[in-house]
Task: structure prediction
Amino acid sequence: MIKVDVRRKAFGEEEVLRDIQFEVDVGETIAIVGASGIGKSTLLRLIAGIDHDFDGKIRRPEKIGMVFQEPVLLPWRSVAENLTLVHPELGSEAALSGLERVGILDKARLFPGQLSLGQQRRLALARAFAGRPDLLVMDEPYVSLDPATAEEMLALTEMLIAETGPAVILVTHSDVEAQRLARRHLRLHGRPATITSELATGSASVFSGVHHDRA
Amino acid sequence: MSKTLQHPAVARALSLGLLLTFWIAAAELTADASVLPQPWMLLGPFAEALASGALPYHLGMTLWRVVCAFVPAMAIGAALGFLMGRVPAVDQWLDPWLVVFLNLPALVLIVLCYLWIGLNEAAAILAVVLNKVPNVATILREGARALDPSLGAMAEVYRMRPLARLRHVILPQLAPFIAGAARSGIAVIWKIVLVVEFLGRSSGIGFQIHFYFQLFDVAMVLVYALSFIGVMLLVEALILQPSERRVRRWRTA
Ligand SMILES: Nc1ncnc2c1ncn2[C@@H]1O[C@H](COP(=O)(O)OP(=O)(O)OP(=O)(O)O)[C@@H](O)[C@H]1O
Ligand SMILES: [Mg+2]
Result:
C-alpha cells in the first residue's frame, strides 16, 4: 500500500504543494489531474523518491517503475541494453520478450536515437514494467503522440497493468485517459496546490471536498 | 578535385606538406646547416641514433614518464573535477586553489619539486602531475555540471547500482570531456616532461636535447624532437582517435 502525506513542498520561497494526503491500494489505479504548472510532476517526484526535500512522509514499496514525461533512455546503449542494464536481474530472454510485448522486438539492437518518439515511449513503458513493480508512476506518458498511437499505447498500458497488477499513479491532461485507466481522480488546484476534489468514477462512491485521513 | 581536398586524410597530408615546404624554404634562405639543416640532412643522424640504440632508449624513457604522469593526473583530476561539479561546497573551497595552480608557471612547480624532494624520478613525475591536475579538473567540472538530471532521476527510481550508474549513466555523459582532457593532457604533459628532463634527469628526450643544445647541434635537437612528435602522432591516430570513434558510435548511428 502507498501512503502519501505531503505537508509542504517549496522551491526556495515558492511554495508549490501543501497538505496532500491520499492512499493507493495494491492493484488500484488513480489519476492526478490539474492545470499545467500546478505541481503534478513535483508531486510524482516526491512519491517516486527522486526528491526527498519536503515536509511530510511517504510510504512506498521498494520496487517502483516510472514513465517520465520524456522517455529518458540511455542514448548510448542499445534498446535491449536499456532494459538489461536498468534491470540486471532480467535475463536477455526476458528483456527480449518485454520488447516483444510492446512491439519493438525488431529494434532491439538499435540505439534509442534511431527510434521514433512513439517507439521510444514503448521502450520506456517496457522498462517500467520489466521490473514487475509494486508501484507504477506515470507522468503524462502519452503526450505528443498522434491520437491513433496514443490509443495504441493506452491499450498496451491497460494490458500490462492487468498482467502485472501494480498500484498505479497516473498524471494526465486527458479526461479520456483518466476515465479509461483510473477509478479515482484527484484534482490539484490552487497556489500552493492541494487536492480540491476526489472523484470516483464508475460504480464506486463519489467524494467531494478534501479527503483527509490522518491515521 | 575539391571533394578529394576535403577528405580529412588528404587535407592533413597536404597541410603537413606545406609545413615541410616552409622548412625547406627557410633552410634555403638561412643557407647554414648548423642553424637550420634541410629535412633530408636529418636522415643520417636519425639512422645513426636509431642504430646505436640511444634514440629508442631515451624515447622509451620519456614515453614511460608521460604514461606515469598521465594516468594519475587524469584519475586525480577527473575525481576532483567531478566532485567540484557535483558538490557546491567542495567547489567553493577548492576553486581558489585551482586558480592558483592554474596560474602557477610549470617551471616554478618543477623547480620547487626538485628543490623540496630532490633530483629524483618521484619529484619529476609529481611535478608533471601537479601541473596537469588543475587542467583536467577544470574540464571535468564542466562535464559534471552538465550531467542530465533526468537520467539521474531515472537511475534513482530504478535503484541502479552505483557501479552500473557510473559506467552506463555518468561516464558516457562525461566521455567527451574526458576525451578533451586526455587530448590536451597528452600534448601538455609531454612538453612538461621534456622540461623536467632538461632540468634534472639523465635520460629522456629532454636530457638529450639539453646535451645537444650544449654542443649547438641543431640537427640532433631536431631529430629527437621530431621523433617524439612522430610517436605522439601515432598514439593519437592508433589509440586516441579510434577509442573516441567507438565511444561516439551511438551519435552517428
Ligand atoms: N527544480 C525547480 N526549481 C524551482 N521551481 C520548480 C522546479 N521544478 C518545478 N518548479 C515549479 O513548480 C511548479 C510546478 O511544476 P511541475 O513541473 O510540477 O508542474 P506540472 O503540474 O507537472 O505541469 P505540466 O502539466 O506542465 O507538466 C511550477 O511553477 C514550476 O515552475
Ligand atoms: Mg509535469
Remarks:
- Chain B touches chain A through 19 residues (CB under 8 Å).
